[in-house]
Amino acid sequence: MITDEERQKMRKKRQRARKRKKIRKNILLTLAVIIILLAVFVITIKIVNPDFFEALYDGGKGQQVIELIDSKILGKTTETQPQSTTEKETTTKVHETNKVNYDYDDFGVFAFDTSLQGNQVGNLLNKTGGAVTYSSSYIYYSVSGKGIFRFEPNEEKNSNVIKGNYNFKYLNVLGDYLYAVDTDSATLKKFPVSGGDSVTVSDNIAFAYLYNDKIYFVSTDNSVGFINLNDFQKTILYTASADKTVSFAGISLYRIFFVTHDNVANYDEYITVNMSDANDVLNWHDDTNNNDIVNMSLECGFMYYYKKNDDSSYSLCRKKFGSENEVVLVENCSVTDYPVVYSNRLYFSELDGSKFKARELNMNSNEVKTMLLASDCDSTGSIGIGYGYQYVFLIGSKSENSESVCKASCIYTSSSGDNTLSFNGEKLTY
């Protein structure tokens, strides 16, 4: 017979058991809610910012949790897939930079006075090697083995202002003086614009661009810097390694911009250095691989370049420095040279079958027209496009070891033979 005292103890025991069960149930429910909220948080972060946890965790249990969520909840696999050796060689970025990207804060740093410019950047970078420039109403052009000529379009007068067996490139003219690089001796020379004795500005110069009171250069030993024209003092700001090729890109009022191409790994690095501080070296564009971008130049704060499309063709593009807005100027065009920019006009060249064409793009109306052409050309040729005082030039060889092309046309006339000027050895004539 169960006593009242025993019944009381059994009732209290059952009550305590029910209470413990309820507590456990509440704890499990709370844990379930926490787990669900945590899972929702993780999934949201993974979707919005896929790299968040990879930056937070470096392997270990944290990484294992992420991999579990990826595989079991999101249905993703985080296993690294093997990559073929061939694919690595052609597509994998070899170079990693620790430099901080250059962040402009005022587009006014590109507010140039174009009247202080010795030549257009595109003119200097393309295959003509800056063989054409202009000042006021004169056009200056170099002829291999003959020196430098001056052409006056208004009166169609031509004169040989710098005579001799010289091969001058990278012509820059400002005020009363003409600057040019004698490529045979790699020396930068200064001449009076009307002719006369030269002065050697500097040795070991492979490229030269003049703005205001400085000449910006790339040297024969891969150095980048500037020369003060008041005293010819040379300042070296950066030197690339011997396995790289340095290409000038442009300047702002305070910095020099250039591209280094790794000839072994086939990647390009875009570097800018402060003119006042050689230690202030930054990147101004993401590195590119396998010629994804070619012929990059910077003219008055706008980048002009050819960008590879998915089908391996190229499009000619423009982007304002610091902007994400990329404008495709010409779709699916052949890459032959750097474009030349003058005001709202862009001059570029194309090899259309066996015809080499100098083309003009009106960047306001998007109208494209042919200014000059040369027939019987191929990809081994060295023809480049140049611009000088409202005249477009084609200069170079049609093919390897073949006849040369030296012709010009006014931008206000058609490309017909009647309106085309030829050098005929040394002088521009119809």
Count of alpha and pi helical runs: 5
CATH-assigned fold name of the largest domain: Methylamine Dehydrogenase, Chain H
What does the overall shape look like?
elongated
Give the count of structural domains.
2
By CATH, the superfamily of the largest domain comes out as Prolyl oligopeptidase, N-terminal domain
* Major sheet description: 4 strands, antiparallel
| Overall CATH architecture of the largest domain | 7 Propeller
CATH class of the largest domain: Mainly Beta
The proportion of residues in beta strands is: 35-45%
Rounded Rg: 33 Å
Going by helix content, strand content and strand pairing, the class is: alpha+beta
Helix content: 10-25%
Side by side, the strands of the main sheet go 1-2-3-4
CA-CA gap between termini? 135 Å
**Whole-number mean pLDDT:** 82
Model regions low in confidence, pLDDT < 50 over at least 5 residues: 50-98
DSSP E strands, number: 28
